[in-house]
Design brief:
Helices cover about 25% and strands about 35% of the residues. Strand 15 and strand 16 form a beta hairpin. The chain folds into two domains: about 80 residues, no CATH class; about 160 residues, no CATH class. It has about 300 residues and is an alpha+beta fold. It has four helices and 16 strands. The strands form three sheets. Strands 5, 6, 7, 8, 9 and 12 form a six-stranded antiparallel beta sheet that branches. A six-stranded mixed beta sheet has the order 11-10-16-15-14-13, with no helix packed on it. Strands 1-2-3-4 form a four-stranded antiparallel beta sheet, with helices on one face. The chain is globular and about 55 Å long.
């Protein structure tokens, strides 16, 4: 059995190497399809493998080949729809695309991702940024900006486009889920992606205002047994989320005990900031049911 697993590991790595060995410029659609097939086999093998060392080896090969594929100009618009477990979001202005995924290992969930950014909508070339998950080692993450090497790992489910009212610069707000596999708590996050004139990217900005306090991002931690809702509501143009509270008042501050109550809070973009509002009303019960059905559970 062990020998068969090693053989399968070598086979997948060889497949990726063979595809990676081809010149990667001006790929045709069929060549992109070949890359996508190899990547699909690789990521499924990561999910099926229980050995942590093999998972990391396979994931390293997968990440390297995905990066090489994403460096192609036309990769910015290629869907990669057949590859499971990938989360993909893009900005409406065509300047930013983010791809994220996770790999569960004993005691933790490891997150990986890439940001593609273009200088303008007509640019043929996109700059590729690798994201390195440091959420387990980064302190005070709600109070400062983070580089791509300090990334608070998450799977992004939505990118909300806004524009600074004075500068006209885009504000890319990200909604992400950050489940753990410790069985104790899960996290969700609302963050901001910044891309400067040189193409470098950072995360976080002092634009989240809650009760006269300003944060660079909002992180919600709650019981792994609970289901928290966090969604951008198109109809009201606001980010709406479950109000969280501890199971018992004496557990306040122990976020692994927090669960949603029946209330919802929201963030509304006013001037150049996301402002917190408590106990908001959604348009109707029908809209709530549709919103819940369309959302991701955790």
């Amino acid at each position: 059995m062990f020998g068969r697993m090693i053989f399968q590991l070598k086979k997948i790595c060889l497949l990726l190497l063979l595809v990676a060995g081809k010149p990667l410029f001006a790929l045709t659609h069929q060549e992109f399809v070949q890359h996508e097939r190899a990547l699909k086999v690789a990521i499924r093998s990561i999910a099926k493998t229980s050995d942590s060392t093999q998972k990391r080896t396979l994931n390293s090969a997968f990440a390297a080949q995905l990066a090489q594929t994403l460096r192609q100009d036309s990769a910015f618009f290629y869907a990669f729809d057949s590859i499971p477990y990938l989360y993909k979001v893009a900005s409406a202005d065509g300047l930013v695309r983010i791809i994220t995924w996770s790999v569960p290992t004993p005691g933790r969930q490891e997150y990986f991702g890439f940001v593609l950014s273009r200088s303008n909508a007509g640019a043929a070339h996109a700059t590729l940024h690798a994201l390195r998950d440091k959420r387990m080692h980064t302190k005070l993450v709600e109070g400062r900006a983070l580089s791509a090497d300090e990334w608070f790992g998450a799977l992004y489910t939505k990118l909300v486009d806004r524009q600074h009212p004075h500068t006209g610069k885009p504000v890319y707000t990200l909604i992400g889920i950050s489940p753990s596999n410790d069985g104790i708590s899960n996290k969700k996050v609302v963050d901001v992606l910044n891309v400067d004139s040189s193409g470098q990217c950072t995360f976080g900005a002092p634009i989240f205002v809650k009760k006269n306090k300003v944060a660079y991002r909002m992180i919600f931690e709650y019981s792994a047994e609970a289901v928290m809702e966090l969604r951008y509501h198109e109809g009201t143009a606001q980010i709406v989320f479950s109000n969280l509270m501890p199971m018992y008042s004496q557990l306040r501050g122990r976020y692994e005990t927090y669960i949603p109550n029946d209330a919802y809070d929201a963030l509304r973009f006013e001037n150049d900031r996301w402002v917190f509002y408590e106990n908001v009303e959604l348009p109707s019960a029908v809209a709530v049911r549709r919103w819940r059905r369309s959302g991701r559970s955790r």
